[in-house]
Write a structure and sequence with these properties.
0% strand; Sig_transdc_resp-reg_C-effctor; globular; HTH luxR-type domain-containing protein; Arc Repressor Mutant, subunit A; 24 helices; WH-like_DNA-bd_sf; mainly alpha; Tscrpt_reg_LuxR_C
Length: 449
């Protein structure tokens, strides 16, 4: 009798060989088809192949990197499997978020014991990715802080990247941008998953800050303005780039990015809007382009998946998007439901429903989405919310120190220093004393929108 495990190892080895010869698409298909064939009778073997698939799809095609990664994952340590299962299952919505939380807790408490440094990094990155999707951002920030402190001598970029994502999720894009930038500085390998992931996180942060020039320059500098490789981590770049393009008024470009993101996610069976809410952004692009039917269909799908998943942020954003698409035909009721889910974030209430909802959406790290919803609902995107980068300048001009600004915005002093460095570069100055003169001389051009 043929040992299916042995057959699985042969398939995995062949897949890595194809990958090394720049034939990654073929290798991923081979692993997926073999896993699907074996899953009904040999689910543990299928899990092994899924492990290979994730590892391969996350690995850049440098010979040394492939050789090192292949040696690490052909025989995965079973102590890492609870974290890996949480990572894989959190892509989909066939199990609710609470079930994934149980897996991540088990992975940390049981499987995280007696691991070496490399194994701990693998486990922690899988657990952290699952926690992003269960939207437990305060707990995730604490987890990342503990990992950064534990690995103080050899901090890995993923911890800062995940922390950037979490800070965006709780409406702190200033802190998120600083974390993502630091993550990129920690590695010189521009093909590595941590570096690409950090680039995506920084792109998201700049978009949320309405720092569109910075975001565009980042895409060009990182070589991500055109066609992107077929590795899993680039799905995040596609989604982030699509959000930026929508904010810049390029609905067609935004739709193309989100639909390409959807195609790639479809290959993994990824349906969870808490992972990448591509349907909501694609729906808004469709609506802007005049295809209301497609917009409603996608938005309804998003709401359905968000209800199955069960996290308030994902469901609140999905409902708010659906409400905007049918504002004059029952949308207000949907927006009221959305605010009930978003109310767990500490946001100052407003007597008017739409401004209150927009404030909640901005507070959970989706300012760019709030801007688009305003355009759809109100027909004019007038935004009375102060932009964080403008706040930095205004607070400095009022005489506040970096420490006082940091306390006022609930970020670190290092984050304030990071953003002022970029602001000074844009204004062509080198010190705080020249800020007032530079702002006056440029007038409205001094705004960083």
């Amino acid at each position: 009798m043929v040992d299916p495990r042995g057959n699985a190892r042969d398939v995995a080895a062949m897949a890595w060989q194809l990958h090394a010869r720049q034939r990654s698409a073929e290798s991923l298909i081979m692993l997926a088809q073999t896993a699907d064939r074996l899953r009904p009778l040999q689910p543990d073997v299928a899990d092994l192949l899924d492990w290979q698939r994730v590892s391969l799809a996350s690995t850049a095609s440098s010979t040394a990197h492939i050789a090192r990664s292949q040696a690490d994952v052909i025989h995965p340590d079973t102590r890492l499997w609870a974290g890996f299962q949480a990572y894989m299952l959190s892509m989909r919505t066939d199990r609710p978020a609470r079930a994934i939380r149980e897996l991540t807790e088990r992975a940390i408490q049981r499987d995280g014991l007696e691991l070496d440094e490399r194994q701990r990094v693998v486990l922690s990155s899988h657990v952290a990715a699952a926690m992003v999707r269960t939207e437990d951002f305060p707990e995730l920030l604490a987890f990342c802080a503990a990992e950064i402190n534990r690995m103080r001598e050899r901090v890995t970029p993923w911890a800062y990247t995940i922390r950037a994502i979490a800070n965006t999720g709780i409406g702190k894009p200033l802190q998120a941008a600083a974390d993502a930038h630091h993550a990129m500085e920690l590695t010189d390998d521009r093909k590595s998953s941590p570096w690409v992931g950090a680039c995506s996180a920084l792109l998201d942060a700049w978009t949320e800050l309405s720092a569109f020039q910075d975001a565009g320059e980042l895409l060009d500098r990182c070589g991500m303005a055109g066609e992107l490789p077929e590795y899993v981590v680039y799905n995040y770049v596609l989604h982030s780039r699509g959000k930026l393009r929508l904010s810049l008024g390029d609905a067609a470009g935004a739709l193309a990015d989100q639909l390409e993101c959807a195609r790639r996610l479809g290959e993994w069976g990824a349906t969870n809007p808490a992972m990448l809410p591509w349907r909501s952004y694609a729906a808004l692009a469709y609506r802007i382009l005049g295809n209301r039917t497609a917009a409603i269909r996608l938005s309804d799908e998003e709401v359905g998946h968000a209800r199955a998943w069960g996290t308030p942020r994902a469901l609140g954003l999905a409902l708010a998007t659906r409400a905007a698409l049918s504002w004059h035909t029952g949308g207000e009721l949907l927006l009221k439901e959305a605010t009930r889910y978003l109310a767990q974030w500490d946001v100052k209430s407003s007597s008017a429903l739409a401004p209150r909802a927009f404030g909640m959406i901005r507070a959970c790290g989706a300012a760019s989405l709030a801007d688009q919803l305003e355009l759809v609902i109100m027909g004019a995107g007038a935004d009375t919310e102060p932009k964080p980068l403008n706040q930095l300048v205004d607070m400095a001009l009022s005489g506040q120190s970096n420490k006082q600004i940091a306390q006022g915005l609930s970020v670190t002093t290092k984050t304030v220093e990071f953003h002022f460095t970029r602001i000074y570069q844009k204004l062509g100055i080198k010190r705080r004393a020249d800020l007032a003169t530079a702002v006056r001389s440029r007038g409205s051009d001094s705004r960083f929108l």
